[in-house]
Model the fold of this input.
Amino acid sequence: MQLWFIMSLVFAVLIAFFAVLNSAMVTIQLGFWQMDLSQSVVILGSAAIGAIVATFFGIFNKLKTSLKNRELKNQVKELEGKIEKLQKENQDLPGIEPEETPKDEIIKEAAIKEASDENRQV
Done:
C-alpha cells in the first residue's frame, strides 16, 4: 500500500512539473461554451478528473469483490452444514462405515468445483 502511495505521489509531482512547464494560455471549447485558461490548469484539471474516475472504478470493483466474498462465505457455511447433516445420516445407516474426510478437503473440493464452474460460465 505504501509503494502504491509513493508511486502516486511521484506521478503527481511529475504531472505538476509538466503543468508548470506548459503555462501558455489555451482556449477550451465545450459546445457553445468557450473559456481561456492556462494550459497548466487544463493539465492539472484533467489529471484530477482522471484520478476521480479511477477512484470510482476502484471503489466499484472493491464493492463487487466484497459482495462476492460475502456470497461465497455464506455458500461455504451452507455446504458445511450439508456436510455435517450427511455425515450424521451416514452414521445412522446400518452396516456402513462412514468415510472420515476432513472438512478442509471437502471445502477445497467445493471451492475448486465452484471456480471451474465460474470459469466455464465466463
In short: The first strand starts at residue 25 and ends at 30. Strands lie at 25-30, 33-38.
